[in-house]
Specification:
6 helices; 161 residues
Amino acid sequence: MITIYTDGACSGNPGKGGFGIVMISGKHRKEISRGFRHTTNNRMELLSVIVALEALKIENSEVRIYSDSKYVVDAIEKGWLNDWIRKKFKKIKNQDLWLRYLDIEASHRVKLIWIKGHANNIENERCDQLAVEAASGKDLLIDVEYEKNESAQTNIGERII
């Protein structure tokens, strides 16, 4: 059993963002964080889950992921994602990340569990700290899909005016 805690953060929404991950398996512990120059909180919450699953070295692992993101947990555990797939993601944001999630999730036995954020859960607080630090760090990565889509929408608006 692998236990994972994840969190995303954004300074402004959209704005500079980051995610933090704590992975625990037996006596082993791994922390991962990354920051992005322009993104959204929901993208960071979802990306943290994806990156954590991608970091697993053994296929078909039993994984429990704890997240304070209702967006991510409810989409998966309440079946919204299945509805979005049936509707071919029409009018659904973050399709690129949801498809990436589906690819990696199929390799494991994953259960997502919602936990209240900022409620003194030590590992969730650590993930939050990692995410905030990553978002405020130097050499921030580019969330290519988000910036490309945001730019395309801005250009459409400019053409209309």
